[in-house]
């Protein structure tokens, strides 16, 4: 199921329908109050929130951990049990239909103001409806904005699907009123880090598993763990994935359906906020008053939004031949076990593949192509050549299997001017010349640093759009760079180079571990089909007409190569022996402004650590 | 030998049991069971047709009849070892290479074996059959087999469901089926120690009947006891329905005598328990004919119980039923037998109700149904039934009965009468006949079993049943299969679970292959859910591939080294187990 076709271009995707259209025609209030009768899981054991809580607290698993913790800490079991109960209170959702209805009403209003359209693939919804009845479902949306989970619940309500319970970060809890509201619409809250806390982990995992086993509600969480500030998919986390798969591994459930959901925005609400964060301006703390201040965002046009519900992935089929379930035969199932090495590898692999499905089903808007080109031309471009190159890029992207939402029957120039208009905050157009720039009224006194900062915000905002399409070009681009730097046309040499680059960038991009050969072949295939390369038995030769494509692909990766170079140069030239991790990012930032994004710096350091070029010494 | 011939004549050659007993749909389309041997014999079963058509999507118009007689020309000529035959003749052991005798002993009752016979396909069959009449005959045969390098396959009742009797294709030597049926005497009964010394070829029902004449029984009643033999029980580690009182075969044997190529293996005394290293009985129990022939067994016997009482309990659902059985096991108060059928099997049992004799009975049935479903609110699509059998002296039985019903009540169980219980146990004996009926109408099926810890019973049952349904669908089976289970034995630490699985194979080009793939998948599912490879059917050749996984490489190596020592020439070459 997860082995996506070798020829990505041929992938069939569903059609979209705008769900706001109906909302614009009829009463939101009546809609929010309408009769909601979701399709339910056939094995559902209905239970109330309070009963759920006592099932979790009484579970053999939790009781076992309570005893362990008690004997290790010396506290009485009652005391530890009380602590567990408090953890659960802090964590648990309290879903209430009335709160959901309130959200449906307000979100209807908000979405209509924010978005021109919200497009959903209805076939995906139908598949989900089917899946929900058969097996417990886990929803795995991509995470680019706070809007994501609101939108998910909103859509599920809209299509009479059971409302999900959502794993949310504890930061929301601090938004007093909103936090409670979210809780009542199905969010449950987990601490960001609880590494060694056995009891917390036990409560948390048992809570999720109980809901899954009872078929209580679909579980929703973000594989990427947090919002991606760069619009690039993040390296997935496997903790929660393990929790939702374990009931299958241990035979408690026949199967679990994982549904990857790709949510894409024509304009991300947090656009400039993210850029500032990447530049080291701390993330504003989630607070209700902050939210109210953010009302300003309501007055802007965010274009359209696309939600694509992917095919449900059966955990059973995923694990077929990879997980030996009988490994759980010899230990009572309530005793927690760390995942074995094999299991861990499987989880990691599955997580990567799921994120790749998310990526592939992510709708790309024309602006993404334009942003890519504008970033490669810092001095701007003439409208005519922008139009021409965008059209060229569009065909290249389509040939590589991009899920491009290009309006039918509209002239290319028309499409471009619409996109430019929507993103006018990031660029200036004068006399047929388009350039990235700050269009807010220039501050009276700007220091050179501030000017650079302002420009960097624009560049990083723009980069976040280019990043959305990177997964389409990534493999061919790695090949293009490999060919350039291999200084050889021998296939082996190029592959080695490709492999090195792939390895280097595996913290930066979603590259499934172990798929090196497959990725290489895919890149060769795509470029060969495009007439850029000829792949012979032992050699790879560039075609005469392939120069421009290869040059483009190389420059796609260029910012990343440069960024990593800067990090390396900094580490070689500037550091004394003892650099602390905390100092690293500001230090690199002041070392060179080219690589300003903290995301890139972190990834580069992680890669160097992984490749053992740099050593981490605990002090 | 005379007895042997007649036995073969009253048995089906291509199906289960006696030739005169079979299910059929009469001209009116009603099901009936022929013959006079069973309580159900001669009765009309009015609801079976609807159940059959509804469950399998089968149609009485679509028949798939069996080849009426064995096609002897399809039997390959025997590969005879003449010097062996001559020596055998000199030793005075009865033998035959008549094709019918050979075909009869070439199979057990696996689906693929019976299916092939019904189609008139005959594979490799033994080249000859020998009938030893006592232990020393067996010694002679084995000695001669070693001398002439002949392959021996012991044959008891022929009820194997593990491909254990199948002749290995790769065997090039002459294959001799060693039929133990003539060794069927009770040699002595020791009332002081309550033991009986019996020849291993005796069939279960004969053993029980003959002991009954003396006022005793073994209490060992596997579902196949009408046809299976004592030697077979030992060779497969059989389990009896009433093991809660009498124990399984390993608890019942006091002494075993087995002839191997190395000589005779036996213990020197009849002590009830010994600490003399690993128990050599356990090399013999479950050896599945790979080491030698069990010739004589000393078994425990018991006085016939004074009183027997059947019973049944209806539960609102399977979970409650399992919870009740678990509690019964925890309190160690299981009756002689306690079995829990799931809802599908409960409905199946209902379909086998004979025509009621009076309006009054039918009125009573209606009333009971009303009480359970309407008054007690049991959902007829979820409720399930436990059948019970109590044995012992009357006072204790009644007391015991109350204890069990009290436990059942705690799990929502309602006593549902002796009749239902008794019918449940009767079904055990006729269910094998039903498969032949199905096969007349494009329905094939089989049962298989496992044992599993208590905490996994529910998960295993659900997952295996669902796996069967899913695998059938994926393999193009047009109509959802019957996939049902029951818990048939309780133990301190777990239970034995039995699955029935059958489907309509119309439209499939190779139904047996599909069947085998599904059964294979079901076994994988069992193992993945913490179930054992087998509780009592054994491994044979059907489940060999999982042996290493089941007993570890070292474990398998131990068994192999025993085989290597006992039978270096692989005279007992049925290739089961290892």
Automatic annotation (TrEMBL), chain A:
<dbReference type="GO" id="GO:0016287">
    <property type="term" value="F:glycerone-phosphate O-acyltransferase activity"/>
</dbReference>
<keyword id="KW-0808">Transferase</keyword>
<dbReference type="Pfam" id="PF01553">
    <property type="entry name" value="Acyltransferase"/>
</dbReference>
<dbReference type="Pfam" id="PF19277">
    <property type="entry name" value="GPAT_C"/>
</dbReference>
<dbReference type="InterPro" id="IPR002123">
    <property type="entry name" value="Plipid/glycerol_acylTrfase"/>
</dbReference>
<dbReference type="InterPro" id="IPR045520">
    <property type="entry name" value="GPAT/DHAPAT_C"/>
</dbReference>
<dbReference type="GO" id="GO:0005778">
    <property type="term" value="C:peroxisomal membrane"/>
</dbReference>
<dbReference type="GO" id="GO:0008654">
    <property type="term" value="P:phospholipid biosynthetic process"/>
</dbReference>
<dbReference type="GO" id="GO:0004366">
    <property type="term" value="F:glycerol-3-phosphate O-acyltransferase activity"/>
</dbReference>
<dbReference type="GO" id="GO:0006631">
    <property type="term" value="P:fatty acid metabolic process"/>
</dbReference>
<feature type="domain" description="Phospholipid/glycerol acyltransferase">
    <location>
        <begin position="137"/>
        <end position="266"/>
    </location>
</feature>
<dbReference type="GO" id="GO:0019432">
    <property type="term" value="P:triglyceride biosynthetic process"/>
</dbReference>
<dbReference type="GO" id="GO:0008611">
    <property type="term" value="P:ether lipid biosynthetic process"/>
</dbReference>
<comment type="similarity">
    <text>Belongs to the GPAT/DAPAT family.</text>
</comment>
<dbReference type="InterPro" id="IPR022284">
    <property type="entry name" value="GPAT/DHAPAT"/>
</dbReference>
<comment type="pathway">
    <text>Phospholipid metabolism.</text>
</comment>
<dbReference type="GO" id="GO:0031966">
    <property type="term" value="C:mitochondrial membrane"/>
</dbReference>
<dbReference type="InterPro" id="IPR041728">
    <property type="entry name" value="GPAT/DHAPAT_LPLAT"/>
</dbReference>
<keyword id="KW-0472">Membrane</keyword>
<keyword id="KW-0012">Acyltransferase</keyword>
<protein>
    <submittedName>
        <fullName>Glyceronephosphate O-acyltransferase</fullName>
    </submittedName>
</protein>
UniProtKB/TrEMBL annotation, chain B:
<keyword id="KW-0597">Phosphoprotein</keyword>
<dbReference type="GO" id="GO:0008611">
    <property type="term" value="P:ether lipid biosynthetic process"/>
</dbReference>
<dbReference type="GO" id="GO:0071949">
    <property type="term" value="F:FAD binding"/>
</dbReference>
<dbReference type="InterPro" id="IPR004113">
    <property type="entry name" value="FAD-bd_oxidored_4_C"/>
</dbReference>
<keyword id="KW-0285">Flavoprotein</keyword>
<dbReference type="InterPro" id="IPR016164">
    <property type="entry name" value="FAD-linked_Oxase-like_C"/>
</dbReference>
<dbReference type="GO" id="GO:0008609">
    <property type="term" value="F:alkylglycerone-phosphate synthase activity"/>
</dbReference>
<dbReference type="GO" id="GO:0005778">
    <property type="term" value="C:peroxisomal membrane"/>
</dbReference>
<comment type="pathway">
    <text>Lipid metabolism.</text>
</comment>
<keyword id="KW-0007">Acetylation</keyword>
<dbReference type="InterPro" id="IPR016171">
    <property type="entry name" value="Vanillyl_alc_oxidase_C-sub2"/>
</dbReference>
<comment type="function">
    <text>Catalyzes the exchange of the acyl chain in acyl-dihydroxyacetonephosphate (acyl-DHAP) for a long chain fatty alcohol, yielding the first ether linked intermediate, i.e. alkyl-dihydroxyacetonephosphate (alkyl-DHAP), in the pathway of ether lipid biosynthesis.</text>
</comment>
<keyword id="KW-0444">Lipid biosynthesis</keyword>
<feature type="domain" description="FAD-binding PCMH-type">
    <location>
        <begin position="122"/>
        <end position="304"/>
    </location>
</feature>
<keyword id="KW-0576">Peroxisome</keyword>
<feature type="binding site">
    <location>
        <begin position="288"/>
        <end position="294"/>
    </location>
    <ligand>
        <name>FAD</name>
    </ligand>
</feature>
<feature type="site" description="Important for enzyme activity">
    <location>
        <position position="339"/>
    </location>
</feature>
<keyword id="KW-0808">Transferase</keyword>
<comment type="similarity">
    <text>Belongs to the FAD-binding oxidoreductase/transferase type 4 family.</text>
</comment>
<dbReference type="InterPro" id="IPR016167">
    <property type="entry name" value="FAD-bd_PCMH_sub1"/>
</dbReference>
<dbReference type="InterPro" id="IPR025650">
    <property type="entry name" value="Alkyl-DHAP_Synthase"/>
</dbReference>
<dbReference type="InterPro" id="IPR016169">
    <property type="entry name" value="FAD-bd_PCMH_sub2"/>
</dbReference>
């Amino acid at each position: 199921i997860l082995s996506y076709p070798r020829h990505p271009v041929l992938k069939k995707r569903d059609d979209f329908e705008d769900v706001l259209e109906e909302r614009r025609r009829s009463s939101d209030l009546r809609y929010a109050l309408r009769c909601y009768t979701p399709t339910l899981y056939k094995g559902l054991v209905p239970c109330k929130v309070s009963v759920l809580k006592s099932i979790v607290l009484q579970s053999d698993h939790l009781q076992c951990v309570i005893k362990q913790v008690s004997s290790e800490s010396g506290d009485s079991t009652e005391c530890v049990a009380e602590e567990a109960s408090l953890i659960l209170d802090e964590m648990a959702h309290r879903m209430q239909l009335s709160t959901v209805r309130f959200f449906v009403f307000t979100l209807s209003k908000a979405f209509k103001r924010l978005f021109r359209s919200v497009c959903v693939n209805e076939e995906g919804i139908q598949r989900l409806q089917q899946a929900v009845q058969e097996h417990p479902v886990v929803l795995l949306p991509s995470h680019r904005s706070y809007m994501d989970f609101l939108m998910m619940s909103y859509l599920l309500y809209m299509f009479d699907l059971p409302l999900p319970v959502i794993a949310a970060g504890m930061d929301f809890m601090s938004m007093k009123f909103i936090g409670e509201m979210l809780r009542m619409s199905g969010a449950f809250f987990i601490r960001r880090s609880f590494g060694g806390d056995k009891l917390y982990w036990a409560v948390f995992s048992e809570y999720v598993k109980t809901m899954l086993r009872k078929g209580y509600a679909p579980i929703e969480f973000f594989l990427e763990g947090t919002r991606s500030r760069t619009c690039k998919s993040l390296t997935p986390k496997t903790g929660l994935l393990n929790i939702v798969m374990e009931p299958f591994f241990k035979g408690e459930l026949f199967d679990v359906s994982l549904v990857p959901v790709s949510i894409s925005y024509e304009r991300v609400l947090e656009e400039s906020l993210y850029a500032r964060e990447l530049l080291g301006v701390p993330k504003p703390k989630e607070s209700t008053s902050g939210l109210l201040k953010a009302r300003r965002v309501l007055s802007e046009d965010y274009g359209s939004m696309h939600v694509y519900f992917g095919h449900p992935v059966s955990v059973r089929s995923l694990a077929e031949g990879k997980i030996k379930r009988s490994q759980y035969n010899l230990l009572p199932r309530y005793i927690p076990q760390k995942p074995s090495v094999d299991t861990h590898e499987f989880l990691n692999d599955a997580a990567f593949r799921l994120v790749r499905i998310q990526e592939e089903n992510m709708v790309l808007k024309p602006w993404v192509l334009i942003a890519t080109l504008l970033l490669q031309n810092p001095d701007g471009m003439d409208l005519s050549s922008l139009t021409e190159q965008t059209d060229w890029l569009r065909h290249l992207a389509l040939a590589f299997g991009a899920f491009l939402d290009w309006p039918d029957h509209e002239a290319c120039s028309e499409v471009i001017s619409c996109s430019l208009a929507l993103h006018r905050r990031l660029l200036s157009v004068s006399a047929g010349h388009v350039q990235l720039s700050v269009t807010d009224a220039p501050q009276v006194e700007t220091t050179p640093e501030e000017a650079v900062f302002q420009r960097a915000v624009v560049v990083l905002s723009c980069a976040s759009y280019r990043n959305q399409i990177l997964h389409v070009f990534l493999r061919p681009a790695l090949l293009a760079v490999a060919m350039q730097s291999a200084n050889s046309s021998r296939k082996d040499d190029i592959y080695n180079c490709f492999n090195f680059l792939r390895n280097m960038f595996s913290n930066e991009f979603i590259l499934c571990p172990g798929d090196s050969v497959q990725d290489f072949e895919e890149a060769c295939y795509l470029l060969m089909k495009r007439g850029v390369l000829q792949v012979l038995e032992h050699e790879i030769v560039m075609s005469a007409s392939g120069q421009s494509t290869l040059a483009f692909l190389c420059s796609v990766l260029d910012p990343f190569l440069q960024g990593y170079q800067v990090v390396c140069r900094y580490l070689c030239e500037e550091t004394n022996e003892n650099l602390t991790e905390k100092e690293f990012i500001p230090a690199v930032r002041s070392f060179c402004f080219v690589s300003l994004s903290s995301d890139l710096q972190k990834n580069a350091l992680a890669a160097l650590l992984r490749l053992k070029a740099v050593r981490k010494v605990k002090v | 030998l005379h007895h042997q011939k007649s036995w073969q004549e009253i048995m089906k050659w291509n199906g289960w049991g006696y030739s005169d007993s079979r299910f059929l749909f009469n001209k009116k389309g009603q099901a009936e069971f022929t013959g006079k041997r069973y309580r159900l014999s001669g009765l009309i079963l009015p609801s079976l047709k609807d159940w059959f058509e509804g469950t399998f999507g089968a149609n009485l118009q679509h028949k798939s009849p069996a080849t009426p007689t064995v096609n002897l020309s399809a039997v390959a000529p025997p590969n005879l070892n003449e010097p062996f035959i001559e020596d055998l003749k000199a030793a005075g052991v009865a033998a035959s290479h008549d094709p019918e005798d050979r075909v009869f002993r070439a199979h057990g009752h696996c689906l693929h074996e019976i299916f092939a016979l019904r189609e008139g396909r005959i594979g490799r069959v033994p080249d000859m059959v020998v009938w030893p009449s006592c232990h020393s005959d067996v010694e002679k045969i084995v000695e001669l087999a070693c001398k002439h390098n002949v392959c021996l396959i012991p044959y008891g009742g022929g009820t194997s469901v593990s491909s254990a009797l199948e002749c290995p294709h790769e065997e090039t030597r002459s294959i001799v089926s060693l039929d133990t049926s003539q060794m069927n005497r009770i040699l002595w009964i020791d009332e002081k120690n309550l033991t009986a010394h019996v020849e291993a070829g005796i069939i279960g029902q004969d053993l029980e009947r003959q002991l009954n004449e003396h006022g005793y029984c073994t209490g060992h009643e596997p579902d196949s006891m009408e046809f299976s033999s004592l030697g077979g029980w030992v060779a497969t580690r059989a389990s009896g329905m009433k093991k809660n009182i009498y124990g399984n075969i390993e608890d019942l044997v006091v002494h075993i005598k087995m002839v191997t190529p190395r000589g005779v293996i036996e213990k020197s005394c009849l002590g009830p328990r010994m600490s003399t290293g690993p128990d050599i009985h356990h090399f013999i129990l479950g050896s599945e004919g790979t080491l030698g022939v069990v010739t004589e067994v000393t078994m425990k016997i018991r006085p016939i119980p004074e009183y027997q009482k059947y019973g049944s309990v209806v539960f609102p659902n399977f979970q409650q039923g399992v919870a009740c059985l678990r509690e019964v096991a925890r309190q160690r108060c299981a009756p002689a037998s306690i079995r829990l059928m799931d809802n599908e099997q409960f409905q199946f049992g209902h379909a086998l109700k004979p025509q009621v004799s009076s309006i009054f009975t039918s009125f009573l049935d209606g009333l009971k149904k009303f009480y359970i479903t309407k008054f007690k609110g049991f959902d007829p699509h979820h409720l399930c039934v436990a059948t019970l059998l109590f044995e012992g002296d009357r006072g204790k039985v009644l007391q015991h009965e109350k204890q069990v019903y009290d436990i059942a009540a705690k799990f929502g169980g309602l006593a549902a009468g002796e009749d239902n219980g008794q019918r449940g146990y009767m079904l055990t004996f006729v269910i094998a006949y039903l498969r032949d009926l199905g096969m007349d109408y494009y329905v094939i099926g089989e049962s298989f079993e496992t044992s599993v810890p208590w905490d996994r019973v529910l998960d295993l049952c659900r997952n295996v049943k669902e796996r069967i349904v899913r695998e059938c669908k994926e393999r193009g089976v047009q109509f959802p299969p019957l996939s049902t289970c029951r818990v048939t034995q309780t133990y301190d630490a777990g239970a034995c679970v039995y699955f029935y699985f059958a489907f309509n194979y119309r439209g499939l080009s190779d139904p047996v292959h599909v069947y085998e793939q599904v059964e294979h998948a079901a076994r994988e599912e069992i193992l993945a859910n913490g179930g054992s490879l087998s509780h009592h059917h054994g491994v044979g050749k059907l489940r060999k591939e999982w042996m290493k996984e089941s007993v570890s490489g070292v474990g398998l190596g131990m068994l192999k080294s025993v085989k290597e020592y006992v039978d270096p020439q692989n005279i007992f070459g049925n290739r089961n187990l290892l």
